[in-house]
Design brief:
Layout (H helix, E strand, L loop, with lengths): L1 H30 L7 H28 L3 H44 L3 H9 L5 H23 L5 H27 L3 H28 L3
Helix pairs in contact: 2-3, 2-5, 2-6, 2-7, 3-4, 3-5, 5-6, 6-7
Subcellular location: Vacuole membrane
Keywords: Coiled coil, Ion transport, Iron, Iron transport, Membrane, Transmembrane, Transmembrane helix, Transport, Vacuole
Organism: Escallonia herrerae
Amino acid sequence: MASNQTSVHDAKFALSVNNMEQQMSLELEKEEFDYSKRSQWLRAAVLGANDGLVSTASLMMGVGAVKQDIKAMILTGFAGLVAGACSMAMGEFVSVYSQLDIQVAQLKRDKRRVADAEEEKEGDDENLPNPVQAAAASALAFSTGAMVPLLAASFIRQYKVRVAVIVAAVSMALVLFGWLGAALGKAPAARSSLRILVGGWLAMALTFGLTKLIGSSGL
């Protein structure tokens, strides 16, 4: 009887140990996840949205420095959105297509050296970059950021209030983008948000100030 109780106790103990080992293994796998794998698409998304936000807001602020009409600011922002999205998409397409050409050329060289080349090529083809997908994602990210100052200024007629709302909306979006990028990449959130926020403020201030200076000089 005592032997049976001992066996049951040993079995429960072994099961408990196995459960603990499995749990520790899962925790280690989570801790050892390489967040740098996210860096490529995360960098493109955050930079695209940030570029759309800052460049469009700066354009609107620059035009607003010499022309306070709401229509002029909105048209400038919309033109900046379309032009910037097209530029980002084309740049990303060309860049990724160049990367694709390099990888395809490497696969062809490997095909001549590896005996089982067809099987290896089929596996590697799944990891080839997609230029169209990259271009669409870049344009979408840019447009998402550019919509913030456009929507913020669309329904405000009074000039000073409009400018203040644009700055406030852009500042909140900059902090959000900085926090999101840091959270997904497991980087310091405060430092990332502050860096992006200060950079956006500088871009808007320089554009506003220089455009105001040139406009007031009569050029």
